[in-house]
């Protein structure tokens, strides 16, 4: 069954017909060709598919595209403006908060949500909030450092 979908993705209006069973992650990747949103576990455990839905971090493999109807979606591709990295992206780069890069888009978007909810988060809070995002490369130390630096930059 095909349904109409109307939402905003990275500040652009999107209207589409989708199968009612289409996951948001599949819509983003396959229909919009925004492949920075990664498919990892398909079970909501790894966080690689995390996007912002109306400003909140959501694992895009856990909701249907139609559930996001009318929402504002931000993917990793929508963060940089006029060629300038978002402060959290810049912090991940500066602090070497990535290695293979597979988890990085989800980590960055989760970090932005974390900072919006906990602007002065300490290391323990950052580590607790990252529980739903898995990285198999870094050991998290530089990710935590990057989030703290990104938070400071986002506060201005």
Summarize the structure.
By secondary structure, this protein is α+β, with helices and mostly antiparallel strands.
List the helices and strands and how they pair.
Blueprint: E1 2-9, E2 12-19, H1 24-31, E3 50-53, E4 56-59, E5 72-74, H2 87-94, H3 104-117, H4 123-129, H5 141-155
Parallel strand pairs: 1-5
Antiparallel strand pairs: 1-2, 3-4, 3-5
Helix pairs in contact: 2-5, 3-5
Q: What does it look like?
A:
With 156 residues, the protein is an alpha+beta fold. The chain has two domains: 2-76, Ubiquitin-like (UB roll) (Roll), CATH 3.10.20.30; 87-155, DNA polymerase, domain 1 (Orthogonal Bundle), CATH 1.10.150.120. Helices cover 33% and strands 17% of the residues. It contains five helices and five strands, in the order ββαβββαααα. It has a five-stranded mixed β-sheet with strand order 2-1-5-3-4, covered by helices on one side. Strand 1 (2-9) and strand 2 form a beta hairpin. The longest helix has 15 residues, at 141-155. The radius of gyration is 15 Å and the shape is globular.
Rg over CA atoms, rounded to whole Å, is 15 Å
General shape = globular
* Biggest beta sheet attributes: 5 strands, mixed
Secondary structure: number of strands:
5
CATH hierarchy class name of the largest domain: Alpha Beta
Placed side by side, the strands forming the largest sheet appear as 2-1-5-3-4
Low-confidence stretches: none
Terminal-residue CA separation: 47 Å
**Could you state the CATH homologous superfamily of the largest domain?**
Beta-grasp domain
- The overall pLDDT average reads 96
Quickly count the helices.
Answer: 5
């Amino acid at each position: 069954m095909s349904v109409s979908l109307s939402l905003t993705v990275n500040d652009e209006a999107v209207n589409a017909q989708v199968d009612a069973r289409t996951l948001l992650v599949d819509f983003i990747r396959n229909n919009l060709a925004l492949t920075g949103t990664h498919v990892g576990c398909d079970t909501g455990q790894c966080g690689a598919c995390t996007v912002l839905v109306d400003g909140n971090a959501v694992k895009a493999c856990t909701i249907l595209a139609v559930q996001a109807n009318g929402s504002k979606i931000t993917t990793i591709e929508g963060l940089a403006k006029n060629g300038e990295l978002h402060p959290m992206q810049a912090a991940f780069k500066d602090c070497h908060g990535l290695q293979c890069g597979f988890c990085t888009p989800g980590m960055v978007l989760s970090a932005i949500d974390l900072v919006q909810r906990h602007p002065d988060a300490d290391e323990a809070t950052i580590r607790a909030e990252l529980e739903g995002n898995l990285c198999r490369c870094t050991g998290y130390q530089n990710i935590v450092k990057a989030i703290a630096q990104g938070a400071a930059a986002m506060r201005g």
